[in-house]
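Risk mitigation, structural track. In case the binding assays with NAI fail to produce interpretable data, a predicted complex structure has been prepared as a fallback.
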Amino acid sequence: MIIKPKVRGFVCVTAHPEGCAAHIQEWIDYVKAQAPISQGPKKVLVIGASTGYGLASRIAAAFGSNAATLGVFFERPSDEGRPATAGWYNTIAFTAAARAAGLYAKNLNGDAFSDEIKQKVIELIKADLGQVDLVVYSLASPRRTHPKTGATHKSVLKPVEAPYTNKTVDTDKGVVSQVTIEPASEQEVQDTIAVMGGEDWELWMNALSDAKLLAPGAQSVAYSYIGPEVTWAIYKNGTIGLAKNDLERAARNIDSLLKLNGGGRAFISVNKALVTQASSAIPVVPLYISILYKLMKAAGTHEGCIEQMYRLFATHMYNGHTPKFDEGGRVRIDDLEMRPEIQSAVQAIWPRVTTENLATETDIAGYRTEFLKLFGFGLPGVDYDARTEPHRPML
Ligand code: NAI
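Fallback model:
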C-alpha cells in the first residue's frame, strides 16, 4: 500500500515502515558518531522501548556500549488495510540493525503493567542473559489495569484544585487559542498516580530482585519533567506532576533495594521537553516546545531524545562518571532547556504569540517536522509515493 500521514488532532494514525527505519538509523548513526561509552551497560532491560526516550535509551546502550537489550512495549501490528504503529516498525528496524552488528536484541510486545509480561521477561532474562545491569523504565500510558485488583485506571492531564487558563496551539491547524481546563477530581488524581506513578516500577524491580536477575551494582532510571512556570499548572503541579512525585517516591525505595545489591542505584532523570507521542497530547506544552525549539536551535543547544540519552549515559552514569544530583536527588539533563537566558526569552515571546505570528515567533515548522518524523514521515531518501509492505513480522 501507499502510506501517507493521516493526522487526527495530536496523533497520526498511520506510520511508514521505511520512514521509521530511516528515523531509527539517524539515531543509530548519531550514537556511532560519538565516542564509545566506556564501562557502559552490558545487559539492559528497557520498559517502554519502542518510541521516544525509551527507544533512545535502548539505542544509546546498544550502539554506544555494545549492550544486549531486551525491549518491552505495547504496539499494534498492522491490520487489514492499516499499517502498524510507529513503535512496531521502529523496533523491527532497531532489532535488525542491532543483530546485524552482532548484538543481542529481543522484544516482548504486551502490557508491561501485567504480571504475565513480567513473568515472560523474567523467563527470557533467565534463559538468555542471566542477569541485567540496567533497567530503564520509560512508560507513558493513558491507562493501566492493576494486576492485583483488576481495576482499570485512566490517567488525565489536568490541573489540580483550580481551573487553568492559558494559551495553547492546535499544531495541526496552526491556530493559537485560549484553553481552560477544569481541575481533576480526587479520583482522577488517584487514577493518574496509579498509571504514571511509581508502583509499577517498584513491582518490576521487586520481581527482578526476587528472581535474582539484577547483577551486583545494577542501576535503574525513570524519566520525569519539571519545566518552566508557564506549564506548572498543567504539568509539575497538575495530575501528571503528582504522579511524577510518586515516581520519585518509588525511586527512593528502589534505590535502597539496589544499594543493598552490590552498591547499585535508582534515580530519576529530568529530561528536556521534546516532541513525542506522549508530550503532544498535553495542552499548552506543544506551544511551549515550539518556542523552546526556536530559541535552543538559535543558541546551538537544541537536543533530541537520542542526544539527551547519550548525554545521560556518557556524562552521568558511565564513562567513569557518577550522577550529579540536584537538591531533590534528581539528575537534570533539562539543564540546557532551563538556562535563565532561554527561559527569560520564552517568557518574553509567550504573551505575544498569536495565530498570525506563530510561524515567525515559534518553530512550529520544526515541531511539525519532528512530529511527522515520529511516524516515519518526511525522512530524506524515502519514496513516499512508492508502494510499501505494511505487514512486517516482529523480530
Ligand atoms: P512515548 O509515548 O514516546 O513512549 C512510551 C513507551 O511506552 C512506548 O514504547 C510504548 O509502547 C510504551 N508503553 C505504553 N503503554 C505500555 C504498556 N501498557 N505496556 C508496555 N509498554 C507500554 O513517551 P516518552 O515521551 O518517551 O515518555 C517516556 C517517559 O519520559 C515518560 O515517563 C515521560 O513522562 C518522560 N518524559 C517525557 C518528556 C517529553 O517531553 N516527551 C520529557 C521528560 C520526561
